[in-house]
């Protein structure tokens, strides 16, 4: 009963608690933009249309990333990761950022000001032990900004898995 109560309260607060504000926002948006023009986009594409695409500053991203689970800035897997990100085009980088953080928007203040739901929370890459798996994001709904990256044995495997995760999945291996 307690679990059901909590689930229903959360659902009510999310769905009904902001329903009036959401309806007003949508109504105002459709006054400016024709619904037929917007309906051709999925959520990710619409965010990119509205927010635009900015060039990601890779050195800022790298300098404001933390590592866990045995990874560090000079770990071979992390060096391969950044080499892969450098090879990505800007759209792929934005997709990677979106899947891990929940948004492809680049903050004006840069990656140092990346926030979680409750406090500043840097981009994080954590070692995850399943090398047969795709990289996965962990909890962007909780705004943890963490990528779980298996310790792949080669750059080519890391690059292939990362590209597959960015290009072919919408959940990035979320469990």
From TrEMBL:
InterPro entries hit by this protein: E3_ubiq-protein_ligase (IPR050409), HECT_dom (IPR000569), Hect_E3_ubiquitin_ligase (IPR035983)
Pfam family, one: HECT
Top-level taxon of origin: Eukaryota
Gene Ontology terms for molecular function: ubiquitin protein ligase activity
Cellular component GO terms held in the UniProt record: cytoplasm
The enzyme's E.C. designation: 2.3.2.26
Residue ranges occupied by any HECT domain in the UniProt entry: 1-175
Reactions performed catalytically: S-ubiquitinyl-[E2 ubiquitin-conjugating enzyme]-L-cysteine + [acceptor protein]-L-lysine = [E2 ubiquitin-conjugating enzyme]-L-cysteine + N(6)-ubiquitinyl-[acceptor protein]-L-lysine
Pathway: Protein modification; protein ubiquitination
Keywords, ordered alphabetically: Repeat, Transferase, Ubl conjugation pathway
One Gene Ontology biological process: protein ubiquitination
Protein name from the UniProt record: HECT-type E3 ubiquitin transferase
């Amino acid at each position: 009963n307690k679990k059901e109560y909590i689930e229903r309260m959360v659902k009510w607060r999310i769905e009904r608690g902001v329903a009036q504000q959401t309806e007003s926002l949508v109504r105002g948006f459709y006054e400016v933009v024709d619904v037929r023009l917007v309906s051709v986009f999925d959520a990710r594409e619409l965010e990119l249309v509205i927010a635009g695409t900015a060039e990601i500053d890779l050195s800022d991203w790298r300098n404001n990333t933390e590592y866990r689970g045995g990874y560090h800035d000079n770990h071979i897997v992390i060096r391969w990761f950044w080499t892969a990100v450098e090879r990505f085009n800007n759209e792929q980088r934005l997709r990677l950022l979106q899947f891990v953080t929940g948004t492809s928007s680049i903050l004006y203040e840069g990656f140092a000001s990346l926030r979680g739901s409750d406090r500043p929370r840097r981009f994080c890459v954590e070692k995850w032990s399943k090398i047969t798996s795709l990289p996965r994001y962990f909890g962007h709904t909780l705004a943890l900004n963490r990528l779980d990256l298996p310790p792949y044995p080669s750059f080519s495997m890391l690059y292939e898995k990362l590209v597959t995760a960015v290009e072919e999945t919408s959940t990035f291996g979320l469990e």
